[in-house]
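Weekly structure sync, notes
Attendees: PL (lead), two postdocs, one rotation student
Agenda item 3: pending single-chain targets
PL asked that the sequence for the first pending target be pasted directly into the notes so everyone works from the same version. It is reproduced below exactly as submitted, 243 residues in total.
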Amino acid sequence: MPKKTNPVTQRSGTSTNIILTAIVLVVAVAVIGGVLLFNNGGNNQAGSGQTVPASVLQKPDSNTLSQAPQGAPTLVEFVDYQCPSCYRYYQSVTSKIEQEYQGEINFVIRNYPLDMHPLAVPAARAVEAAAMQGKFQQMYHKMFDNYRSWAYTNGSLSSDKQAALARFDTFAKQIGLDLDKFHQDMNSQEVTQRIEQDRADGRKAGVQGTPSFYLNGSKFELSGNPQQDLNTLRQKLDGALAK
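Predicted structure, written out during the meeting:
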């Protein structure tokens, strides 16, 4: 005859299993929660959907492509001058926004050179050095309008710093900079500090890649489709201007 099971023992074993399973689940939740708390603890990055303080996104001496009266919408871009996506968005989005909304919005450009782009920091230094002679916009446009002449070599991203610096000298001459001062400023501690301050503010704002845009403190999420993003950004800017 088959062995009879004791219903009391069976129920007891089942109850024990349920309790043990519940304990394991509680511990797992606590551990996961602790890991998340640890990862976020002490992290000043803005989370998704949070408004980034204006003091983080824009400094009194930040470079601008457009300036507008107080209360106008403010668009901030964190840019890497050797970043292919920044170049693509410059062609399809930012250059158009700059032209269409000139004088109506504050359009602020901050540096966020990525380590993966070997010429990003030299390019940022060149733009900042030009800004110290009052020619930020001119050098900014030179960098992107002539992007492939310095950022690429033989179809791939260049790491030839000397060739890039020679091109930057050409740009500097074309926009009428004092070349000696340009070289001095490029290698100055002031320019280094400006770039590092931009990077630090970008990290606080939650920048994880370039280009990154913030409209009135809110992250503008890119779709990866420049034309779609241009249309959406136009709608948001028009709505902000209508308020």
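Discussion points:
- The first strand starts at residue 63 and ends at 66.
- DSSP finds ten helices and seven strands in the chain.
Action: rotation student to compare against the earlier draft before next sync.
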